[in-house]
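Appendix B, record 7
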Amino acid sequence: MLADGTIEAFRLQAHFCREFESPLYAELLARAADDIEAGGPFAGLLAGWQGRPMPDALPLRLLGAVHRLVLDGAAPELAAYYPSAGGAVRHPEAWLALRALVAARAADLRPALDRQVQTNEVRRSAALLGGFLTVAGRTGLQLRLLEIGSSAGLNLGWDRARYEFAACAMDTPPAPGATFTPVWGAADAALVLRCGWHGARAVLAGGAHVVSRAGCDIAPVDLADADQARRLESFVWPDQLPRLQQLRAAIDVARRDPPRLTRRGAADWLAEQLAAPAAGVATVVFHSIMWWYLSDEERQRVAASLAAAGARATPDAPVAWLRLELQGTPKGDLRLTQWPGGSEELLGHGDPHGRWVTWLGGGAAA
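Structure tokens (predicted):
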């Protein structure tokens, strides 16, 4: 018995992968949906799984587990078609190899269906950057960073990267062959993040100093553990080598000065962190493309903690809530709420994979 919506989830994820420039996964997921409908090996693997196929990202849980086998050298027949393992995409050979793997290794893959997708898309920092600079410019204070749903905490180190932007149309990736120019960050930064930028760039002329950084996650990734770092890699789509390279570079940077992460739910952890005002710094609570994983109750508790902290905020101990989250469309809304005052604004839009930023806000100064 399949969970309701399983076939639809695979077809919808295939559509998303096509939109987000992964033709390999788009093809494999579309064929997998047909296989499930026909009662093939995928149907057998997924039978009896209990959950919500799309909200729980079932297709990506499965393909992440498969990719892990490929990266570990345990699926050489499929690796021949995965660029992340040095292969070259070919159809229908890639599908036939994947289908054979699922049929032969169902017992190995089944446990992964009960483990959440764990990603840490570091290029989302390109959108968050404008928000951090806005808070720093308006308050004139150093930043105290608190991230919920941190994964490995890579985006807590946003200020250690160099950002290179190319002009692009609104809500659209840069054209092939676009020229990227350094705009913000140290010239010798080990991590370089490249994406498109549409809109005014005045905000990028600002600076910021991070005085502390901490995060929480229900299953934080310990980058000192090679096995856990490999799990992060497994959820990068295998025909998107620049994303994989950026993730590995970000991991190397983070290992030199690991972020402080706590294994805790977002609402409980944040209530503790915001229990008392932090004088002399601007506290920035932020998150990116994780809100949909929280229950309605936990979302309400997070918002309540922020509102309570906002009510206690002063010009010397301000609080900001910065988030890049999906609002029913494939593009993320970059929103900022600042206290004292509690004013909320839409700063712009950002691609969930960090391919582009559309900036709607102005400069960093109030």
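Remarks on this record: The chain has a mean pLDDT of 96. The CA atoms of residues 32 and 38 lie 10 Å apart.
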